[in-house]
Design a protein that fits this description.
Layout lengths: L1 H23 L8 E16 L6 E3 L6 E4 L8 E11 L5 E9 L5 E5 L3 E3 L33 H8 L5 E2 L1 H7 L2 H5 L5 H15 L1 H5 L1 E6 L7 H8 L5 H13 L11 E6 L10 E6 L2 H6 L2
Parallel strand pairs: 8-10
Antiparallel strand pairs: 1-4, 1-7, 2-3, 4-5, 5-6, 9-11, 10-11
Protein name: D-alanyl-D-alanine carboxypeptidase
Organism: Lentilactobacillus sunkii
Keywords: Signal
């Protein structure tokens, strides 16, 4: 009898010990983080301060996208400073939303891994945004055929309170190939939307699309005003957003995920672009 009690006590003690280990396990990438608030940072330059593994995550901190140690010569451009709260521990931390100079790599990273200023190891001296690192994590976006340009980042930044999303950005980066394929660029808009519906149906069903410079929303005269500098790019885009949806403004889409592409000023298609704004169910339920 005493032996049975001893065995039972030992078993319970062991289970209790294992339970304590399980409860004490820290939050990893599977723990969801919520955005408490964010501040625009105007693409300020930063670079990594360590060669240790330090990961860039997706916008909700649920997936590792890149490892900073694989980008020793990269200058990162911070577009947002984000206060986030872990649903697992309740603790808060400040993260930066970063993008490399080519616009091919982006995500959120804990601010303690970065220091302000251009990377002194950049081969061009850091005078212009450039990415000289290669990510070997298996998730590198460095092979994008249409890397995000600075005007695309500016376009996405107009939509206040939105969350840049790497998948939506990759989709938006496919837009130029559709516009250039057809003599009527508006046809490219339509076929691009069809492509999204076929390949990314869940995203398509939960997204709003703005086609900047679409013939039905901006006439040639307005585009010419943009190209001649009579109106700013922001006012030009604002006119498109308002015309498409009445009283809708840049502040209407807070907390939505965003991807955007705009042809730069050197392109004959300057004035055209696309904005994808996704409102997934998870984001809708966790925005409080």
């Amino acid at each position: 009898m005493k032996k049975s009690i001893l065995l039972l006590t030992t078993a319970l003690t062991t289970l209790g010990f294992l339970g304590a280990i399980t409860q004490a396990k820290p939050a990893q990438a599977s723990a969801r983080y919520y955005w408490v608030k964010s501040i625009n940072r105007n693409n300020l330059p930063y670079h990594t301060v360590s060669q240790r593994s330090a990961y860039i995550y997706n916008a909700t901190h649920t997936q590792k996208l890149h490892n900073l140690k694989n980008y020793p010569r990269t200058t990162w451009y911070v577009s947002k400073s984000i206060l986030m709260r872990s649903s697992y521990t309740g603790k808060k931390g400040v993260y930066y939303y970063v993008t490399n100079g080519a616009g091919t790599v982006n995500g959120i990273v804990w601010r303690g891994y970065l220091t302000s200023g251009t990377n002194p190891n950049t081969t061009n001296g850091g005078n212009t945004p450039s990415d000289n690192g290669n990510d070997n994590s298996g998730n590198s976006n460095g092979t994008d055929t249409n890397p995000t340009n600075s005007l695309s980042q500016e376009l996405a930044g107009f939509f206040e309170g939105t969350v840049p999303d790497s998948q939506l950005q990759q989709i938006a980066n496919e837009y130029p190939s559709f516009v250039s394929k057809y003599s009527n660029p508006d046809s490219g808009d339509e076929y691009f939307k069809i492509m999204v519906a076929e390949k990314y149906n869940d995203i398509y069903k939960n997204s709003a699309f703005f086609f900047i410079g679409n013939g039905g929303k901006n006439n040639k005269e307005t585009q010419q005003q943009l190209k001649s500098g009579q109106i700013s790019f922001k006012d030009y885009v604002n006119n498109v957003v308002y015309a498409a949806n009445g009283n809708v403004s840049f502040t209407t889409f807070k907390n939505r995920l965003i991807g955007a592409y705009a042809f730069d000023q050197s392109s004959p298609n300057y004035g055209r672009g696309v904005v994808i704004l996704e409102s997934p169910q998870q984001n809708q339920t966790s925005s409080n």
